């Protein structure tokens, strides 16, 4: 264990646990993750889906995803759906827009911790790993705080014939935001789900003023509040369309990042 991490963990014990609380019981109807399509289909270039934002909202008020034609990053917060387009600018999205891949849930924190000290994404991941018992249970994770630096990306709208996702990500626009407050929304999913959804941590970010954000790459932040909602049920809406029916998902699509 490196010294910095040890310092953080000690401080977590001294400071964070004072803010730690567990909320017993949960509404079983809300203890579910709902996802549209599967990651391997998105990796293979299935970028159009039939699920509207209006319908997606009936399955969750929190989460992430993308839009048809891979038109930017989606973040769902407080029941509102936002797009961060390829220019890094965020906007609220209308209900009639559709998604080829999204992951949502009704978020109710089981556990809330606070970390005052400045930490980066890697350190945060290690900290959450130590707090969550085992790696086999999915968790939705919401993080708010003061971000001195945060690096994000988005994806540009594609046109047919669609290239594989990793080809798009090789040319992804990246953004660096400094001294912003905002919210990270995402999931830590078990590695055994890797063909279905992104394994380990997958986060999207939006600023408090809802002006910018994207798929989270890295950050340094302080005064973090970390809310964790563990989930024991996952529902997957598989597409009905020809793109999904015909795409070959039997080859290794590569590793999502
Ligand atoms: Zn993402």
Strand and helix map with partners:
Layout: H1 3-14, E1 21-22, E2 32-36, H2 39-43, E3 51-52, H3 53-57, E4 62-66, E5 73-77, E6 80-84, E7 90-92, E8 98-99, E9 102-105, E10 111-115, E11 119-120, H4 121-131, E12 139-153, H5 165-169, E13 174-189, E14 200-207, E15 213-230, E16 233-237, H6 242-246
Parallel strand pairs: 2-16
Antiparallel strand pairs: 1-10, 2-9, 3-8, 4-5, 4-9, 5-6, 6-7, 10-15, 11-15, 12-13, 12-15, 13-14, 14-15
The structure holds zinc ion.
Zinc ion binds next to strand 14.
What can be said about this structure in brief?
The protein is α+β, with helices and mostly antiparallel strands and about 260 residues long.
Properties at a glance:
257 residues, alpha+beta, 60s Ribosomal Protein L30, Chain: A, seven-stranded antiparallel β-sheet, globular, binds zinc ion
């Amino acid at each position: 264990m490196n010294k910095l991490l040890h310092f953080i963990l000690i401080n977590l014990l001294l400071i964070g646990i004072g803010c730690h609380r567990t909320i017993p019981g949960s509404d079983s109807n809300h203890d579910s993750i709902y996802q549209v399509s599967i990651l391997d289909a998105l990796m293979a270039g299935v970028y159009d889906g039939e699920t509207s934002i209006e319908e997606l909202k009936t399955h969750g008020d929190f989460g992430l995803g993308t839009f048809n034609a891979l038109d930017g990053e989606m973040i769902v917060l407080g029941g509102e759906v936002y797009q961060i387009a390829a220019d890094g600018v965020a906007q609220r999205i209308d209900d009639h827009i559709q998604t080829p891949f999204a992951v949502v849930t009704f978020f109710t924190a089981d556990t809330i911790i606070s970390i005052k000290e400045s930490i980066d994404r890697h350190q945060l991941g290690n900290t959450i790993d130590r707090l969550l018992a085992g790696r086999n249970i999915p968790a939705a994770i919401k993080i708010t705080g003061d971000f001195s630096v945060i690096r994000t990306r988005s994806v540009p709208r594609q046109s047919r014939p669609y290239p594989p996702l990793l080809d798009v990500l090789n040319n992804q626009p990246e953004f660096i935001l400094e001294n912003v407050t905002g919210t990270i929304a995402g999931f830590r999913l078990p590695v055994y789900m890797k063909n279905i959804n992104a394994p380990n941590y997958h986060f999207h970010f939006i600023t408090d003023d809802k002006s910018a954000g994207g798929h989270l790459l890295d950050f340094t932040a302080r005064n973090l509040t970390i809310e964790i909602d563990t989930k024991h049920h996952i529902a997957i809406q598989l597409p009905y369309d020809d793109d999904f029916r015909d795409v070959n998902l039997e080859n290794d699509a590569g590793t999502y990042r």
